[in-house]
Design a protein that fits this description.
five-stranded antiparallel beta sheet
């Protein structure tokens, strides 16, 4: 509201209030103001201030603009803004004109704003978030203490603080992305700025930061002036994401390996049947070919090629964890110690082999033949990585592994393990190579110098025996293979000396041969008949049941493939036992199917013959099983 004060000479005269000024003072109707009564409304602190200002205005023609407190006629204290301006005529002040404004709402808003700022500061402090304010046009930047604390510093240590401080501490690889996002926000393409970047901690390591901000003031041309933002330490989240990403990669790799393993097992099974026919008929042809025949060399070459192919399929089966295994409780120190002579011949004289057995290693359960394969493949791999000579170190030790130590092997329970370590001083491997070394047919060797199945075989054997394998390597600094086999609950026993089976007087008896691969069926029947056995044959289980039903005599042994259409070999054996109690069975297969084995491990008491097999193993196995049945 407005007011006016007449000045007579140097003496204040009539004071006139507008209706708004009267409402501010809450005076009753008919109230006549004068200067003295007007001054009386002001608080004790404000009254001398307004009196002095009015006197200066009258005497010296000085304007004033004050914030004061007055008490209304009804006793309410009101913050007001009082403005006075002198009017001068002929060199003297003739009147004062002014305005009085109730600024209660403004002061309440300011108080609320201060309270909100305090509350916001408390929230920010509780959230442990760094904050920054940036004057984009001047470069002046204000950081809070938490901003510096995240980087292990105090604000004093970062002085002078400016936008250059942020640039200096940010990882060079992240600056470009941050600048691009800022530009997009400034130009309106992004509603706010958000960037994850690395900033250097006081001790030198990089801290992952989530930087967020928004322009809060722009000039008349729309250019950004002030920007406010937050600065949050997300290092732990990034570590968790990296760990999760690593686990996803491990899972994807495991699924890929499992898929390749199923494919490898299937290929090996079918290929073994073909190899059985090639190897078998070649052996029969050699038996019927004179020593001086020119054809004999060709047949021998076919046989050797078939045997080398059989070796490849055995490695594929090992990778696919379908290789036949007869596990025993063994002392790794004794097993490895017995292999050293063979390993030294394998790696050559220019490579030193160091054996460091751990004291009192616990027993483990594994097929000793598979242990030979593991060490032979690892040593050959190490040998090929040391062209000019070097050293291979083999060691064992007892260890206890917790969940964190087995994080890279989901599903493997923590516990006690025996560690087998094979280290070399070779040329090492890159990270790209390490990611694929256990996959079949992956090799870094020259064409003709490696099948790419050696380490795949090791992986399959270790996994089949419930172990885990890890590898660490750096280019130029050798490789380190670490295998952990679970501790056996049983004690290792010395392997008995092999003894020859008791002789069988003659190859007599009636055999039922069931095989769905026609060539394998004909070969096996021919071999057994040459040995003097009576052989009944069938191309499938249902035909076999009909043959038995029509045969009036006694059947001494069932020789059957494991995987066949309609009915597997175990089911056929169980059907025949109903009418032929005590009937023995010899299983044959290109891989050990789950119907007679668990994870490729043949159960005790089950007679099994792995395809492809030669004439002598077939004859020996048939005699062995018949001998047990007659004992």
């Amino acid at each position: 509201g407005g007011w006016e004060l007449e000045v007579l000479g140097s003496v204040p005269g009539t004071l006139t209030w507008s209706e708004q000024v009267r409402r501010i003072h809450q005076v009753p109707d008919g109230f006549v103001p004068d200067l003295g009564r007007a001054f009386a409304f002001y608080s004790p602190e404000s009254r001398p201030v307004i009196e002095s200002a009015v006197r200066e205005a009258v005497e010296n023609a000085r304007s004033y603009d004050l914030e004061l407190v007055l008490t209304t006629a009804q006793g309410r204290q009101v913050p007001v803004r009082s403005i006075g301006t002198p009017e001068v005529e002929d060199g003297r002040v003739v009147r004062l004109v002014g305005a009085l404004q109730d600024i209660s709402d403004i002061r309440a808003a300011e108080a609320a704003l201060r309270e909100e700022r305090v509350r916001l500061a408390s929230i920010i402090e509780a959230a442990r978030v760094g904050t920054w304010e940036w004057n984009i046009q001047t470069g002046e930047t204000v950081f809070n203490e938490r901003w510096a604390e995240i980087l292990g510093c105090t604000l004093a240590e970062l002085q002078p603080v400016s936008i250059d401080t942020w640039i200096r501490l940010t990882h060079p690889d992240d600056l470009g992305r941050s600048e691009t996002l800022l530009k997009d926000h400034f130009e309106g393409r992004l509603d706010y700025y958000e960037c994850e970047c690395r900033m250097r901690h006081k001790d030198g390591h990089w801290v992952w930061i989530q930087d967020r901000g928004r322009v809060i003031t722009r000039d008349q041309a729309g250019r950004p002036v002030m920007m406010f933002g937050t600065h949050t330490d997300i290092s732990e989240r990034r570590r968790s994401e990296e760990k999760e990403r690593g686990l996803r990669e491990l899972l994807a790799r495991a699924e890929r390996m499992e898929s390749v393993g199923r494919l490898a097992g299937g290929v090996a099974h079918d290929f073994n049947n073909m190899l059985q026919a090639i190897l078998g008929y070649t052996t029969l042809a050699l038996m019927d070919t004179p020593e001086d025949s020119a054809l004999r060399d060709n047949l021998e070459e076919i046989r050797r090629s078939a045997e080398r192919s059989a070796d490849l399929t055995r490695q594929l089966l090992a990778f696919a964890r379908k290789q036949t295994a007869v596990p025993k409780v063994v002392d790794l120190n004794q097993t490895i110690g017995g292999m050293l002579k063979m390993l030294r011949r394998l790696i050559g004289e220019n490579i030193a082999l160091s054996w460091e057995p751990g004291a009192g290693v616990w027993p483990v359960t594994i097929d000793p033949g598979q242990m030979d394969q593991v060490l032979a493949n690892l040593c050959v791999n190490a040998r090929d990585a040391m062209d000019g000579g070097g050293r291979i170190t083999i060691s064992t030790a007892n260890v206890a592994l917790d969940e964190s130590a087995l994080a890279a092997h989901p599903g493997v329970p923590p516990g006690e393990f025996v560690r087998l370590l094979v280290e070399d001083t070779g040329h090492g491997m890159s990270a790209e190579t390490l990611a694929s070394i256990f996959e079949p047919f992956f090799t870094t060797k020259e064409v003709g110098k490696g099948t790419g199945l050696g380490l795949a075989t090791v992986f399959g054997i270790v996994t089949q025996n419930r172990g885990v394998i890890d590898v660490a390597s750096t280019v130029g600094h050798g490789s380190r293979f670490v295998i952990h086999f679970p501790r056996s609950s049983m004690e290792a026993t010395a392997s008995p000396s092999p003894s020859a089976p008791a002789p069988v007087e003659s190859s007599q008896g009636t055999l039922l041969l069931v095989e769905d691969e026609e060539q394998v069926l004909r070969f096996t029947r021919q071999v057994l008949q040459r040995q003097g056995y009576t052989v009944l044959d069938a191309a499938n289980p249902m035909t076999a049941l009909d043959v038995v039903a029509r045969f009036p005599g006694r059947i001494d042994l069932l020789v059957t493939d494991v995987v066949m259409p309609g009915m597997n070999g175990r089911q056929l054996h169980e059907r025949l036992l109903a009418t032929n109690p005590g009937l023995r069975c010899l299983y044959m297969s290109g891989y050990t199917a789950d119907v007679i084995a668990t994870h490729g491990v043949v159960q005790e008491g089950v007679a099994f013959l792995q395809k492809p097999f030669g004439i002598e193993p077939l004859v020996a196995k048939v005699k062995e099983v018949l001998q047990r049945s007659r004992a």
